[in-house]
Amino acid sequence: MKLRVLIAICIAVAGFVTTSARAQQADALKKAQSAFDQAQLDYLQGKYDEAAKGFQEAYASRPFPQFLYNVGASFHMKGKQASDVASYGQAVEFYKRYLKEEPEATDKAKVEKAIGVLEAEIKRIKDAPPPGTGSGSGTGSGSSVGSGSAVPPAAPSQEVQQLGDVKVRGLVVIESEPQNATIYLDDKKKGPFAQTPWSGSLDGEHKVIIEKRGYKISESTLSADPSKLFVLRVVISQEDYLGWVEVTSNVPGAEVFIDDKSVGAMGKTPLSQNIKPGKHTFWISAEGYREYSETVDIAAGETHAVKANLNGTPVGKLNIIGLGIEDSSISLDGSTLCERGPCLKAIPQGDHTVVVSRPGYKSFVRRINIQAKTETTIKVSLAEVPSRSDAVVAYVLAAGFAGGGVYLGTQANKLRDDLKKEIAAGMPPVDSNDPRFTNGKLYAVFADAAYAIAGITALTALYYTFRDKGAPTTGLVDVRAMTLNPQVGPHYAGVGMEVTW
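Below the sequence we write its predicted C-alpha cells.
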C-alpha cells in the first residue's frame, strides 16, 4: 500500500514539474516576443544601442540564434553610422556567435562576408592618421582642425557601403503541446517539414499541419513577416479511436496512395499518420518500379506497418514535344500521362497507345513500342480542325430541294384529286387536252427530281461532315539508345545515363 502511494506521489510530482516547466517556457516566449517587438521598433527609429539591448533580452528569455544576428545587425548599423570601431567589433562578435549556434545557416556565406568586410574596416579606421595632425606652413591666423571643434565621422569604405543597410531578421516559432509532433508545410504530399518545437525563417502565407500519433490533426494558417517574430503554439487533443499507420519502402520518396488513387498521392515514403479504423488499401509507386499494393485492416489505438518492396521493371523514356504542346494533354493507354506538355516520363517497355489532344485541333494517335533503355521522342505537329461550312451549305441545299419536292408533290396530288372528284360526280373534263393533266404530270416529275437531288445533296453533306479535310496531324518519332554506366563521386555512388543517337 505504501509503495502505491509513493508511486502516485511521484507521478503527481512529475506531472506538476512538467506542467510548471511548460508554463515557464510559455512565459519566457512571451517575454522574448515583447522584447523583440520593442527592439524592432527601436531599430527602425535608429536607436541602435536600445535595439541591441532589446534583442539581447529576447535572447536571454529564449536563446534563438536569429536574435544574436539581430544584435550584430544593430551594432553593424551603429558602426556604419558613426564609423565606430567598438560597434563594428561588437557586430563581428555577435555575427560569429550566430554562426556558431547556427552552423547550417542558409545565409552563412553572406554573414561570413560581412564579418570579413567589417574586420577590414576596423583595421582601416585604426590605421588611418588621426584628424588634425596634418603639417603645414604659413603665417596666417586660420583655424586648425582639432582645436575643440567637432570632427565629422569618416565615411564608410566602399566595401561597407556595398553591404547595404542591414535588416533585422524575423523568426517563426512553431510549438505544440505535446511536443515532438510532425510538421507539414502547405501539403502533406511534400513530406515532413520538421518536428516541434521548431524555429526558423519563413516568408509569406503557409498552411501548417501538425500531426502526432494518437492525437487529432491540427491545421493552421500563418502569415510570416521576414522582419517580425511570429509564434504559433498549438494544443492537440488525443484521439483514442484512431489507428496509426507507418508506410515505408525500399525506395525512399515513393508516392503513397490511400483508398482512392484519383485523389492523388497522400505523401511520400516514409509516411506516418493517423487513420480511421477499418479496411484501407495502400498503393506505393515509384518511377521505374512495379507498383506495390496492400489492403490493411486498421484497428483503433494500434500501429500498422506497410512495408513496400518495390521491384524494378524494364523501362524506357517517352518524350512528347512540339509546337503548341503546352496547350495539349497527353494520355497513354487511356489514362492521363501529362495534363500539359512537354511530357517526359518513364514508361514500362511494351506496346502503348499515345494520344495528344488540343481543343480545336486534330488529335494525334499513335501506337508505339517502348523498349528498355531507350528514349522515344515524338515531335507532334497538330493541325487545326478545318471549317465545315461546305457541309452546312450542302445541308441547306438538300433541305431546299426537299422542300421544293414536297411543294411540287402537293400540287400534283391536288390536281389529281380534283380530276377524280369531277369524274366521280359525272362531270369528266370536256377536253382530253385539259391543262390539268399536263400540269399534274409536270408537278409529279419535278417533285421526283427534287427529291432525288435532295437525297444526293444530303449524302454529299454527310461526306463533307465526316471526311478528313485539311492538313493531317503528324508526329516525327525518334528512338535513341540509353546506356547506364556506374559512377562514383565524392558524395555519391550510383549509375549515370548516356544518350546516343
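The helical segments are 2-44, 48-61, 65-82, 85-101, 108-127, 158-163, 389-424, 435-466.
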